[in-house]
Amino acid sequence: MESATQKLKNSILYLAFLYAVLYLLHTFILHKLLIGNQPLRVKKNPDRPLRFRSDGTFKILQVADLHYGNGAVTRCRDVLESDFKYCSDLNSTQFLKTMLEAEKPDFIAFTGDNIFGSSATDAAESLLKAFGPAMESRIPWAAVLGNHDQESTMNREELMFFLSLMDYSVAQTNPPAEDFSNIDKGGRKKHIDGFGNYNVRVYGPPGSHLANSSILNLFFLDSGDRETVQGHRTYGWIKESQLHWLRGFGQAFHQGQKQNLDHSHDALIPTSPPALVFFHIPIPEIPQLFYQKYVGQFQEAVACSRVNSGVLQTLVALKDVKAVFMGHDHTNDFCGNLDGIWFCYGGGFGYHGYGKAGWPRRARVISLELGKGKKDWTGVQRIKTWKHLDDGKLSKIDEQVLWEWQSPR
């Protein structure tokens, strides 16, 4: 009898020990594998590669200066009381959802100040909410940083790494190791300033002879945040190391593309695909556009860096860049041409960013169309853009053709 009693006691002690181990495992170890009380899971990736639709179109939604804070508790800035009974970050979220439903873009480009760091209590939580509609839509998206993103609980490197891990994001912290345009003669990877310098290639429609060809390049560059130059505070700028990578990429891409197209007999296919560039802070030449013809509104002084690093000259020399899309100055939404390249503001999108009362928040759309030959598509033929206003009617304004390919004669 005593032996059976002792066995029972031992069993109870053993079960208690197992329970204690499991409790400690759950309490002190498993919780470290949780983010936001949700278990870790594999990132959901978009279909690769990005490509034009079967109808020969590819549409990009630019979201400039979302300035997301903490959600419903974050109030709007510069709006008329008569327009909103209560206005918060949720209005920005709803505008993004409305644009995604109305335009059904193939790609979303966020051009910086995605969160308003000084208002965001937790950067990760704000990022998840800010990009929530993009992830829910399952549409591929990418982003660069502005000058306010890093003012919360993450530095710029951590922010870009986090963005690269989010669902349906194709953003990168910097060019991958296999990008040979960033390798020196000794086989070493070169240093590139900033975080968020990368290329996204877009391929031809499925089933076409362009299906395996990159026919559009999208470049994303980190324009920095704030810096001090000779004792003066100024905005950041795109550094020489970034421009060097851009030039190297262009040379390597052209060499590979020429080899691919040597086998084509269709003279209507452009041998050099067009490129679009996305960054946050305008370059120092943008103020010149005030005295030239532009499409849209030029309502505030351009807040650019004091340093001119030669971005315009580099983009012109690449010959493929047709347009640049930027943010930073919320009440500028114009497109102007500098040396054959269009520079376009997105206009303020988010309601927690500064704006102008009575001037609706807005979003820019970029539409690319392929040319059609006798039998198949012939490469990018036309690039257009327009804007939508969050005015209750989603008014479409300022539609224009930025570039159109002309066949050599």
UniProtKB/TrEMBL annotation:
Q: Which GO terms describe its cellular component?
A: cytoplasm; extracellular region
> What cofactor is this protein dependent on?
Zn(2+)
Q: Which residues cross the membrane?
A: 12-34
Q: Where is coiled-coil annotated? A: none
Please name the InterPro entries in this protein's record. Answer: Calcineurin-like_PHP, Metallo-depent_PP-like, PAP14/16/28/29
For this UniProt entry, the molecular function terms from Gene Ontology, in alphabetical order, are: hydrolase activity, acting on ester bonds; metal ion binding
Subunit annotation: Homodimer.
Q: What is this protein called?
A: Calcineurin-like phosphoesterase domain-containing protein
Native organism is Rhamnella rubrinervis
